[in-house]
Write a structure and sequence with these properties.
Helix content is about 30%, strand content about 20%. By secondary structure, it is α+β, with helices and mostly antiparallel strands. Keywords: Membrane, Transmembrane, Transmembrane helix.
Length: about 750
């Protein structure tokens, strides 16, 4: 149905109502009149019967109402596209014409998945299987048996496997003398990072080449985008997709850097270290111990962040010679004694800083103090820089729950910890503040249900829209996915290898060198090192992005400080500039998010998502098989604002019809009475009867055709006044229809 047909139906309905209502009202009036009425009632003059008055008034009122409805009602019609009945549709690949599509390099068909040991494997103490006796790095291919196991849970449908996740950009490199291929001597492909485009500020669901990107909460879903064909206006459908999403918890350390500002001339005063309970609490509170026994069941990121916060505050106190902590736990706040903990103004920053090095803030303070050229009024430092690095590594180890040299295991999870300095906050007039938050992040794989709509009129990926992303719901524990994680140490003797992971079929649950978990999501493993020596963002040779990218992107997310652009910082590649001072849009976002530790937890997640969107892509889509979709079909809907006239008209019509039916069952036959009234009250019949010869011109009861044949040609002059007499004895014979008539005892006018 379209608007034209709907308008025609409305017009037809109003036409019927305009025919029904006046005739039904006449019928009701006829029933009410009966056969005996006063002259006033018949003349519709003063003294009309009340039961007849309201019927007479309804006739024009209903006519006016229906006329208004005939004009107003069609204005509320408009056309929309809605989902029709489910049908099966064939899908085909649709390319992304954006910068992401143009900068995604596809691996050639038949390219086998390869991997090697971590670059941090010590050649002098080679792990068994990683290096040959000559110290040459061994490049391994993934065996068909392993590919079968870790692809078995996603054979059908749209779920991606670890092998379907590929680097968006790659380098092709021939073998050198330090590498030994196991299967092939062809040039090898290695992932590389290029800053294609930042989409952190989008705050929506984006479909880009190979990915669904959630820049609201954070996370990427893997899908080689295909769309249904043969649907004129497109379609809508849902798919279950594999997502990799970050999870972060930040806690407030309760220490900050405050400084005073003269609001009048916008000049800055001195900076101070402010204790808001963190330093004073060192003597009162024990170090929190996170629950790290079963990280897959409970990651306890909050406990890890609390432990890191306590350790950071302790390092902060040691850095200042223990001047902050007191035996009674009382806070030594700069607001009480500003001469105790002054800092040079250069130690204050107007920007957010997120670093995996817990000593970075203290190193910044030391550096800026030395640059200031004077330490007068500043506490003498007792910790040399190398001691800060050692303390930072210790804090990372305590937060992660493993030593910095630990390799990835199927029972452990990758955890990234770091310290965040907030954007400039304004706690009170004339004051500015930078808070310190300790954060702990992990990355998990999860299945999500994604809703899609496709506009069939758009030829490229721009027509594909993500309507919503929901957590997949499970009826019970048995319906949850079975996740498997490879035990690389036991399987290959290669501890530094990142393990394969994915959804597996139950038939492989008891396989060797495999740890399984039946749960909604899986925290991913990955190699972790201390802050002193970081893992290269693309350090492990090979093309298996699925086992590398999560940890690498999260490590890079904790590199928003100035070290990110230093060539010797391999964990901090040249990524996007996330400083708020270079972007007003970022500044507004950071001001909002860093106002509290809870909202600041979103920042590492969003940066991870932005980096992952630029680094990896998915290669699995619906394919050529058919899937059920709901095609988009045009339909007509109505704006209820234009409904009142039509609603009132419909209600009046129905009420009149019901009243007419009610009258039909009361008293004599309504149709006969109505015919009687129409004949007796017709002026023409009255004229021919009363103005004709008595006893000869009775036309009140004649049929219509007979009356018209006999009396229809007569004419009467109704302009003049006549005195009509109720009864006369006899009338003289008249020779003309225009002769005047006089009553008995009266004068002829």
């Amino acid at each position: 149905m379209n608007i034209s047909i709907a308008s025609a139906l409305i017009a037809a309905g109003i036409f019927l109502a305009r025919q029904i209502c006046p005739n039904a009202l006449v019928y009701i009036c006829s029933k009410r009149l009966g056969y005996s009425n006063s002259a006033a009632t018949c003349a519709y003059d003063e003294g009309v019967r009340p039961s007849v008055v309201w019927i007479g008034r309804l006739v024009p009122a209903v006519a006016i109402l229906l006329s208004i409805a005939s004009v107003v009602t069609p204005l509320g019609l408009y056309s929309v596209v809605v989902a029709g009945k489910p049908v099966e549709a064939t899908f085909q690949y649709v390319r992304d014409s954006s910068i992401f599509g143009r900068n995604t390099v596809r691996l050639p068909d038949g390219d086998m998945p390869l991997r090697s040991c971590s670059v941090f494997t010590n050649i002098s103490r080679p792990q068994r299987g990683c290096y040959t006796g000559e110290g040459r790095l061994r490049i391994q291919s993934v065996s068909p048996a392993l590919r079968e196991v870790f692809s078995s849970g996603a054979d059908d449908g749209t779920l991606s496997t670890v092998f379907d996740i590929r680097w968006r950009r790659r380098l092709t490199k021939a073998m050198d003398n330090n590498q030994v291929p196991v299967v092939t001597s062809k040039p090898l492909h290695r992932g590389t990072f290029r800053s294609i485009k930042s989409i952190l500020l989008n705050e929506r669901y984006d479909a880009i080449e190979g990915l669904i990107v959630d820049t609201i909460k954070g996370g990427v879903g893997f899908r080689n985008h295909t769309v249904p064909i043969g649907q004129k206006l497109g379609a809508e459908w849902r798919e279950d997709l594999l997502f990799v999403e970050p999870e972060t918890v930040c806690v407030d350390t309760d220490i900050s850097i405050d400084w005073m500002v003269d609001e009048g001339d916008v000049t800055y005063g001195k900076g101070y270290v402010a204790d808001r309970g963190g330093l004073a609490g060192l003597a009162l509170n024990k170090r929190p111990e996170p629950e790290i026994g079963h990280p897959q069941r409970k990651a306890d990121l909050h406990g890890r962040a609390r432990a890191a916060a306590w350790d950071f505050v302790s390092m902060f106190d040691d850095f200042f010679n223990g001047s902050f902590s007191t035996s009674d736990g009382s806070a030594a706040s700069v607001s009480n004694d500003s001469s105790i903990f002054p800092l040079p103004l250069w130690a204050v920053t107007n920007d957010i800083r997120l670093s995996n090095d817990f000593s970075s803030e203290l190193s910044w303070i030391r550096y800026e103090t030395e640059v200031a050229g004077s330490r007068r009024g500043v506490i003498e430092y007792v910790k040399p820089p190398q001691m800060l690095v050692a303390r930072s590594t210790s804090i990372n180890d305590g937060c992660r729950g493993v030593q910095s040299s630990a390799f990835a295991t199927p029972r452990g999870i990758f955890v990234q910890c770091g310290i965040m300095r907030s954007w400039v906050l304004k706690p009170a007039y004339g004051y500015r503040r930078n808070n310190f938050y300790a954060c702990a992040s992990a990355v998990k794989a999860v299945i999500k249900s994604v809703g899609f709509t496709y506009n069939g009129t758009t030829p490229h990926l721009e027509g594909l829209q993500v309507t919503d992303i929901r957590d997949k719901q499970y009826e019970d524990g048995e319906s949850m996915p079975l996740w498997g994680v490879e035990d690389t140490r036991d399987a290959h003797g290669k501890g530094p290898l990142s393990p394969l992971w994915g959804i597996i079929s139950p038939e492989y649950a008891d396989g060797p060198n495999l740890t399984t978990y039946r749960q909604p999501s899986l925290y991913l493993s990955g190699p972790m090192t201390g802050s002193g020596v970081q893992v290269d963002a693309f350090g492990e040779f090979g093309n298996l992005a699925g086992i590398h990218f999560a940890g690498q992107m999260m490590r890079s997310a904790y590199c928003t400080d100035d070290s990110r652009n230093e060539w010797n910082q391999t964990a901090c590649p040249r990524i996007f500039d996330y400083h708020g001072r270079t972007s007003m849009a970022l500044q507004e976002k950071w001001v909002k998010l860093t106002a509290s530790a809870e909202t600041a937890s979103t920042i590492p997640n969003l940066i991870f998502t932005d980096l992952a969107a630029n680094a990896v892509t998915g290669t699995k889509g619906v394919g050529v098989e058919k899937r059920v979709v709901r095609p988009q079909v045009p339909t007509v809907t109505f704006n209820l604002v234009y409904m009142p006239p039509a609603a009132l008209g419909l209600a009046a019509t129905l009420l009149i019809i019901m009243m007419a039916f009610a009258e039909a069952f009361r008293g004599e036959s309504g149709i006969a009475a109505m015919r009687h009234h129409m004949q007796r009250l017709a002026p023409g019949r009255i004229f021919t009867t009363l103005l004709g010869p008595a006893g000869k011109e009775e036309g009140l009861n004649m049929g219509s055709k007979a009356w018209s044949s006999r009396f229809g040609a007569r004419t009467y002059d109704t302009f003049k006044l006549y005195r009509v007499v109720e009864s006369v004895d006899e009338y003289p014979e008249r020779t003309s229809d225009h002769e005047q008539v006089s009553g008995k005892g009266g004068d002829v006018e």
